[in-house]
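Box 4.2: Ligand-aware structure prediction
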Amino acid sequence: MPDSVQNASALTADESPTTDHRVFGPSQTPTHPLATAPVGTPPFSVDGFVREFLHELNTNQGVALSRSSINDQYLALASTVRNYLMARWLETGGKPQENQPKVVGYLSAEYLLGRQLGNALLATDLADIAEKGLALCGIDLATLRNQEVEPGLGNGGLGRLAACFIDSLATMNVLCIGYGIRYEYGIFRQTFVDGRQVEQPDTWLQLGSPWEFPHPEASVKVNFGGHTETFTDADGVEKSRWVPGWNVLAMPYNYMVPGYLNGRVNTLRLWSAQATNAFDLQIFNSGDYAQAVRAQTFAENISKVLYPEDSTPQGKELRLQQQYFFVAASLHDFINKELEEGFDLHRLSERIAFQLNDTHPVIAVPELMRILVDEKGYDWDEAWDITSRCFGYTCHTLLPEALEVWPTELLGRLLPRHLEIIYRINEEFLAQVRKQFPDDELRARRMSIIAELPERGVRMAYLATVAATKVNGVAELHSQLLRDKVLPDFSEMYPDKFTNVTNGVTPRRFVRLANPKLSTLITDTIGSGWVTQLERLKELEPYADDADFRAAFREAKQWNKTRLTTLLKARDGIELPEGHLLDVMVKRLHEYKRQSLKLLHIVSLYEQVISGKIAASDVTPRTVVFGAKAAPGYKLAKETIHLINKVAEKVNADERLEGRLKVAFPANYNVTLAEKLIPAADLSEQISLAGMEASGTGNMKFALNGALTIGTDDGANVEIRKLVGDKHFFLFGMNEPQVAELGAQGYIPGDYYEKNPNLKAAIDLILSGYFSPSDQHMFDQVIYSLLNTDRFMALADFDSYIAAQAKVEQHYADQDAWTRSAILNVARSGYFSSDRSMRDYIQRIWHTSPVL
Ligand code: 26W
């Protein structure tokens, strides 16, 4: 911890720019009519647009059209579209007013936003005008859209869900401030070197970031380290206070969150870390330049990079620094900036509902207690009464290893006052436990927020559950397992605290924007209301029996396939053959998601053909498309990626297959690729071991884009199958109780290997080194983990999976029947809109309402 990190008070009075964040507006009463007029919006016309664009290009980019680069043109276009949104943002994105409904404060360490330009053009209905206006300037809109690097400020499901949720709240006219971290480097860019994943830094800011508005004047000082000391206050009460050791500045960057065609623009506020005192001149003058700027680099590290793990916390100190950094800045921001001066904090929960997106922001609970007790002088009970009304907690996982436990040693060193407060919260809580469940010390020990073994630590999920008004899972099965298996003691103690809100996805990005052909067909058939009332897709049901509609539907799917073929050729040099069933598995690489099971299906098919057990002509022409990043530290996941690429190499080159089975693995799966892949898919692979995938959201995107699902009864698959109907869903495998049963009785994967010849042949082919001629044992680790432990029972579900795949081939052979099923998947998946999820959160947890 550098000693030169001091606060801003060093600057002399007359040099210091005003930092009083409450001073707004001109110092004198403005008299010019424009100064008091509402902020203008450029004319909504091609001409008006061209004028605005050229103005931005010349003045903002400082180039003439004739000398402008594509990046100049993209940045000018972005700021032009921003200008159309600005007036609305200033009107609707401002400070929440006393008479306005409660604000939703969404606290998330991740936001997987995807490209912004397309969504902004959609939300403002500027796409056509922009296309025409740019064409008049000799520019192709699509080229500029491809110039945008997506902000990859998230790992996977949790981060993308946050992005869908804030889009829905804006579209539903609900006040929301999304709070998070502006990582300088987002999720790594994945490349393949000889089939192995190699991570490259995500330099998303390099070519400029036109969608953010920095507000250095609104920076917040965030403290760390130091110690606490007790003192007796004026009324003789023994109190404790924090004496921090060092601090950093949190600088806010505001992003627009435009509602769809409703003129509302909410705000996403992402914090970036800066040194309070960037440069130590004395040290510099003493010639130790590195030391002089060490404070800066040290501070900036906090928001430098996103942790690429999406299941196993590494327990790194920097990760905890990140969590406290954005939470402290966000609470300070809302309490001291958004709320009007002198607001009575007893009524805080009337003005905001903070939602904890998993345990990552739960340090917000002791932080709010610290603010109320130490800074605002409330007594403990008062403070707890306020705090325990302000938070909802969403759990996104079932994996025990994904539940964060911060060692008290680390927490006490970084946040000594917060550890004290957590101890007190736990004390008060255990007193309640003992009162409600007398003479049951075992229960008290089980429920303690403080774990003693293997080392003393704070169980963040327990802290969140104790403090939250509501705890929800993200799919019915998940929420049930949370009650029964993950937090049973808490469910028994607080039965009404537990609820469910099944995930959803935004139809704006994942249907309207990603699938224009299908969108037009739907709108031409049932009108355009579906984009904000997705349940109206139901009106498509009768058209499943309409041959013309089916033909048009197939045409849209084919158009998406052709678009994907062109993209993968240009992007990855991948040839997608014509007329193949597109079997797609895209999600993070994790053993519980069972990419290995998909791989065993491919290798088994391949082995049967090359061994002559089946003729190539018996194989339904199929291309399996994988998309998956592995956490860099997750060795077995990276090995699995390597194996998939090596199998692909062999299968794709083997003439004996007569081109009827192909494997494609485009690198760097992200939101932008998902928008092209998902609309083109026929089959959606949702094959996790039952009881492992909290919900899944890819499954919903596929169903809404007319792909049929092959899946287990896991997460939201259960609800998808219930709504689309068994005839239009390929269910296989054990359900959760059967998995528990098999686990209890003792699972021996080797038995399944021995008794299933096809499975044995497939595994033996890999073990023979057939796919790794240079090193026969290259994939031993992957295969032996399946043969010896197979924690996620891929071998046990193999048979049932293969049987289901046979049903897929059979159904696909009847294109009309398949198309009918696909249409019914679309028609019956309106429930999976994130707008519906938001309605559920509003009703069950937040109790706010749209601004009228
Ligand atoms: C600390 C390491 C870490 C980081 C992220 C642990 C766990 C996470 C996330 C909770 C993992 C995640 O993204 N979970 C996914 O959340 C989705 C949205 O609710 C669900 O649809 C997925 O089923 C769930 O795996």
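In the box above, the bound molecule is 26W. Residues 616 and 658 are 7 Å apart (CA to CA).
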